[in-house]
Amino acid sequence: MRxxxxxxxxxxxxxxxxxxxxxxxxxxxxxxxxxxxIEEQVSAATGRPFTMGGDLKLSLFPWAGVSLSDLHLGxxxxxxxxxxxxxxxxxxxxxLIPLLFRDIRIKRFVVDGxxxxxxKGKDGRTSWGGIGKxxxxxxxxEKEPREKRMGGLPIKDLxxxxxxxxxxxxxxxxxxxxxxxxxxDVTVRLQxxxxxxxxxxxxxxxxxxxxxxxEGSMGPLGKDPGKGLVPLSLALFAVKxxxxxxKGTVGDIPAQPRFDLALEVPEVxxxxxxxxxxxxxxxxxxxxxxxxxxxxxxVKGDQTMVALSSGVLELDDSKLAxxxxxxxxxxxxxxxxxxxxxxxxxxxxxxxxxxxxxxxxSVETAKTTPPAPVKKKPDYGPLRKLCVNGRMKIxxxxxxxxxxxxxxVTVTGDKGVFxxxxxxxxxYDGSVMAECTVSVVSNVPRATVDVNSHGIQVNPLxxxxxxxxxxxxxxxSRFDITAxxxxxxxxxxxxxxxxxxxxxxxxxxxxxxxxxxxxxxxxFTGAKTREKPRTDFTEFRVPFTITNGVLNTRxxxxxxxxxxxxxxxxxxxxxxSLDFRIEPKVVGTLKGQGDEIERSGIMxxxxxxxxxxxxxFAPDLEALLRQRIEQEVRIPSELKxxxxxxxxxxxxxxxxxxxxxxxxxxxxxxxx
Length: 672
What we know:
Number of helices: 14
Helix content: 10-25%
Strand content: over 45%
C-alpha cells in the first residue's frame, strides 16, 4: 500500500514538474535567436527572401502555441512589387499530449492581413513561377504511386475551435496589358469543427468592392477522414443574389477522388449580375439579350472520367438539353448530345456599327504602333489525341439574319481526322445536305467539303443576309471543294474543286442584260428609265472550277424570253476581283412575249470587272467596232478569196495579192 502511495506521489511530482517546465521554459529560453534560422530555412525551401519583422512568441501550456507577425515572402528580382506574400499576424494553438494519440485538438488557427500579389511582367515572367520544389523533385514525386503519396489522413480525431483568415487580399497586376484587379476583404471561417458532424464554412470577399460569398457545409468526415463518401452542400452568392447551388457527395479524395453532384443555377440575369460586379457588359444587337439564364445538370466523375447528364440550360427564350462524357484524359474520348429548340445568334453579336468602329480603330492603331509579333503556328498535337463522337440538333436558328430550321449535325473524329456527316439544314423552302472532313494529321490542316442543295428561294435569303434585292429564283447546287491552311487568306488561296449552281425562273435585278448586249445607252450609264432594270430568265446555269482560289467558268449560260447569253471568265476569291465577258448567242423575237418596249440596238458583249462588292459593267468596244464594220461594210467575196490566197503564198510572192487588195478597196470606197 505504501508502495502504491509512493508511486503515486512520484508520478504526481513528475506531472507537476513537467507542467512547471512547460510553463517556465518559454520564460527562460530566448526563442528570438531562432528567427534567422527559420528565415533561412523558409528562403531555402521557396527560393525567395523571407523575413519575420515581429517577435516570435511561444507558449506550451495549457495550449502549445506559436505567434508570428510581420511576415514577408519576397519577389525575385525584376518585379516592381517587393512582396509576393505578406502577413500581418499568424497564431496557432494546439494541445500537445493528444497529438501523441493522433488526436488533433486546435483551439485557434488565425491568419490576419494576408496579402498576395500576382504580378506578370511585360516579358511574360510571373511572380509565382518557380516557387517551391524544383522540377526534378516534382517529377520524382510524380513517379510514386498516388495511393502511396496520398493515403488516408493519419489522424484519429479532429477538433477545431476556430479557423479564420481575416482581412485578406489578392492583387493581380499585368504590366503587359495594364490590367489591375483586386479581391479585398477576404474572409474564411470554419468553427466548431469535428469528425462526427458537418463542418460549416464561409468564404467571402469583395470583387471590385462588390460582395461575393461561398457558403456551405461538408461532412461529417467520419472517423477515417479521406475515405468513403462525404456529403457536400455549397451556395454561391454575388451582390447578395444566389447564382449557383451544388449538392451531392465527394469521396476518397486523397487516393481515389470521386464525386456525384447536382448543379443548379437559379434563374438569374447575367446582364444585371455583371453590372452589379462592375464587370463590362458586352454590347449586343439586342439590349435585352443575356437577361435570363438558368441551368440544371448532374455531374459525376472520378480519376478516369467526368460525365454530365440530364442537363437543361435556358438562355433568354432558348432552351438547351445536353449530356456529355469525357474519359481517358491523357487521350480524351468525348461523347456529347445537344438539342436546342431555337436561338437567334444575332441578338448576342455586336451591332454592325460597333464592329466597323473597332475595325477602323484597329487600322488607325496599326498606323501608329509597330506590327505585332508573328504568331506561332498552332499546335495540333492535342487534337490528334482527341476522340469525339457527338450530335447536335437545333429546331430553329438565325445567324447573320439567315433563318434555318431542322439542323442536324453528327461529328466523329479520331487520330486527327474529324468528319461532320451528315449535315442537314432546311433553308428558305429548300434543303441542304453536306459532308465535311478536316484532317490535322500533318502540320497543315486539310479539309474537303461536299454540298448538295435544292429548292432554295434566293431572293429572301439574299435580302436577309446581304440586305440586297439583286436576284430572284429557285436555286440548286452541288460542289466539292478542298482547302488547306490555318489562316483565312491562306485557305482562300488553296481552294480547289468543281461545282455548279442552277437558278430557275427568276431575274437578275439592277441591270438589263438584254439592253446591254443591244448597246442601249441607258443600260450602261444608269440613266433613269420608266421601270427598274432587271434581266428575267428561265434558267441561269453556273458551272465552275476552282484552282488555287480562282474560280473559272466557260459555260455559264442564261436563258431569257429576250436573249440567250453565255459568260466566260474568272473570279479571284482571295482578292475578290472579277473578270468576265458576257456574249449574246441567241436573240429571241420580242413578239409574243408581251413586251411593247423598243429594244433595238447592236448586239455587243459586256465586260464585267471590279470587285464582289462593287462590280462594273461596260460594253466590249472592240467587239462593238467589229460589229459596226461588218454591218456597214460588206466585204466582197473577191477580197475574201484574195486574202485567202495571200495566206497560202510563200514569202516574197505577195505582190499580186497586194495589187488585188488595193483594187478591191478602191472599188469599195468609190461605192461608198
